[in-house]
Amino acid sequence: MFKFHQMKHIFEILDKMRCLRKRSTVSFLGVLVIFLLFMNLYIEDSYVLEGDKQLIRETSTHQLNSERYVHTFKDLSNFSGAINVTYRYLAATPLQRKRYLTIGLSSVKRKKGNYLLETIKSIFEQSSYEELKEISVVVHLADFNSSWRDAMVQDITQKFAHHIIAGRLMVIHAPEEYYPILDGLKRNYNDPEDRVKFRSKQNVDYAFLLNFCANTSDYYVMLEDDVRCSKNFLTAIKKVIASLEGTYWVTLEFSKLGYIGKLYHSHDLPRLAHFLLMFYQEMPCDWLLTHFRGLLAQKNVIRFKPSLFQHMGYYSSYKGTENKLKDDDFEEESFDIPDNPPASLYTNMNVFENYEASKAYSSVDEYFWGKPPSTGDVFVIVFENPIIIKKIKVNTGTEDRQNDILHHGALDVGENVMPSKRRRQCSTYLRLGEFKNGNFEMSVNFCI
């Protein structure tokens, strides 16, 4: 566009000067044209010499927040390539193979407290030997204070040397020269200037972390550097992902706090990194993550209970202020996450609004809601394939509607499904028991 406007301007000058037949004027104009073309080539060469660092800065400045870039971002596939950043490997062994899950942490120097080592320890201690084979942990030390980084690397290598050697733990740093402008940013929401700078840099910290982790695993989960994990969290995550096979999702949430426990497909990480980098000064990271999910057509939050990650830091990384946030859905032992095999659901009960039968079987925090049932009403689950059942658990009612439960009911297991016009039925049924206080729970071990 620079060339086009420049040459257009030159031709306009030439057209106006045609009426002037003085040879000296024409000669001067010719010199002017040559001079401008030379300057254009010089400017272009300087951009080429600046290289990818300048490109990163250009994609992160105020201009990217203007309306003329909105149409570009509507197609997020335009941002599927990696951001060209030369990372410093502070502690790492080359990754031998792609893992199932990468856990990403970004950390900076805190004025009060430091929880990074405890977070890394919790990740490894709460994972079994088999689970450790399927995870990698990437820590981005994003502070520009080299003395602090050196001290942290020394502590990490002393405490977790065997995990680094095994390729399970990598510590990296994105140099300051790759960062966009962090001063004089827009003060959205009337945030003080230092707060805007802090959250804007944090967005870029995470963008560079996501960019690095794009090809290290099949899935990626974002944590903060002051988090405690539940026991065997990876197994719980794998159960949830398996239960959602064949359905579309962008973000799965395993904590209701901030950007703790947000899970993504790794193939979405480059786009998410570009997104954070493009709008780094607009709003906090957790708000941007919500917009990203919506842009990729996942309208509703998909969050699971119990939560797998708990915030444990008492002092915030911003000014060392107190941060007492806790996830009251967190459980240290997370074995109770349902592992529902593929099935079809039927009911002859009247459904209230859009709380259809399928929601009763979902792993997400949602439910079936029917109008008061009558004798003979049924709720049928037909498994698609033969399965071995080890545990059955059915809950009715909610915390805010504790009397809205199934007061009288029984659970039967059938076999030999027979086709029916009204609903699928079985030739024989075995009664396992009756509901008590609206709930049914039983440990079994038989094949259906």
From TrEMBL:
GO terms for molecular function: acetylglucosaminyltransferase activity. Residues 343-444 form the MGAT4 A/B/C C-terminal domain. The chain crosses the membrane at residues 26-43. GO terms for biological process: protein N-linked glycosylation. It is a single-pass type II membrane protein. Signal peptide: none annotated. Keywords: Glycosyltransferase, Golgi apparatus, Membrane, Signal-anchor, Transferase, Transmembrane, Transmembrane helix. InterPro entries: Glyco_transf_54, MGAT4, MGAT4_A/B/C_C. It is found in: Golgi apparatus membrane. GO terms for cellular component: Golgi membrane. Pathway: Protein modification; protein glycosylation. Belongs to the glycosyltransferase 54 family. This is MGAT4 family member C. It comes from Macaca mulatta.
